[in-house]
Specification:
Strand content: 5-15%
Structural class: alpha/beta
Radius of gyration: 18 Å
Bound molecules: glutamic acid
Number of helices: 11
Helix content: 40-55%
Number of domains: 1
Amino acid sequence: MNLRDGLKDKKRIVIKIGSSSLTHPETGSLDLIKLEILVREISDLRNQGKEVVLVSSGAIMVGRRALGFLNKPQKLSEKQACASVGQARLMMIYQKLFMEYNQIAGQILMTKNTMLNDLNRMNARNTFQELLAMGVIPIVNENDTIATFEIEFGDNDTLSAVVAALIDADLLILLSDIDGLFTDDPHTNPGAEFIDVVESIDAHLLSMGKESTGTNVGTGGMATKLTAAEVATGAGADMVIANGEDFHVIHKIMQGRKHGTLFLSNKKDEFYLIDFLDKLK
Ligand code: GLU
């Protein structure tokens, strides 16, 4: 049996988009054509009766552009200000585009505290459940306007895996500026080989993670993606890392076609989300 056939039947899907997949590299402004494709792809999944959560980065990037920062803001307060402006703009555009397809989007902003505090975590879970039951597409980001070092996830790869675990998603799709997992960094080693399917994550595989993405926008490198894979698969979800250059890849992945690296779920009885989060403290 083709290991990817199972992807067709996934019902609750978390899709994570990095800043570099949403913006024009030359200017940092939003790539509206790409966003339209993303929204159409997600709306079509909804039309198939699937539940979809979108974890979208881009708040800081969009705010940076609006406020005239040429480079990544260095000061925490600047980063927070950029996120405040950018998150609102980003949501305005998502709302507008999803409305065109008769879909309702909601916003959930989280920090690590949302997950570590028992009451907050239960509330967040209930809100997700309620939104999904209502047919809403929750759009999630880190609450960068108030997140400081102590309470931030730091990257949306980890956040999306934590969300997948929290809501018992059966699939997490990470779309980034890389095609998937290679045996080494393909930018520096032309002999690096592409890995199609990962059946279990071991120490050797984790050592293949590289720290940087090669862009100056997102925060997650391959190492954070492998951590995300550990969390998502341990919690019982499959995960696909694929290139977000063309968002049409979403329906191709869902059809079980060969795109990106597939990490098969490996639900661990001893997997406790809270233990993982404790390690991040
Ligand atoms: N939360 C950040 C933002 O929306 C991005 C984090 C990331 O790129 O992983 O700008």
